[in-house]
Amino acid sequence: MNPAARLLPKFFIVCSVILILTGVAQYLVRPRKDHESALEKVLNRSAITALLSVAIGVFGLMLGLGILKMPRF
Predict the structure, then answer these.
(1) For residue 41, which of 31, 55, 53 has the smallest C-alpha distance?
(2) 31 inside domain
(3) Using an 8 Å Cβ cutoff, are 62 and 68 in contact?
(4) Residue 30 domain-assigned (yes or no)
(5) What is this structure's pTM?
(6) pLDDT truncated to tens, each residue of the chain (73 aa)?
(7) What residue numbers bound the domain in which 37 lies?
(8) Is 49 exposed, middle or buried (0-12, 13-18, 19+ CB in 10 A)?
């Protein structure tokens, strides 16, 4: 097996964990307005960015763990 192919799952796992932690931290430290509604909490630009980071991180983690198969081109 190619050495780079053996390293790829570990790379996905490490990078995905970092991305998930970054997304969670970004959501926790985002600026908040006084008395913001639930809709404003979700539609905030930093909340959307944090959610996207966590979603991509979970997808990469599933690739790295072998739950999803790598696409073959």
Answers:
(1) 31
(2) yes
(3) yes
(4) yes
(5) 0.83
(6) 788 788 889 999 999 999 999 999 998 998 888 888 888 887 888 889 999 999 999 999 999 999 998 878 7
(7) 3-65
(8) middle
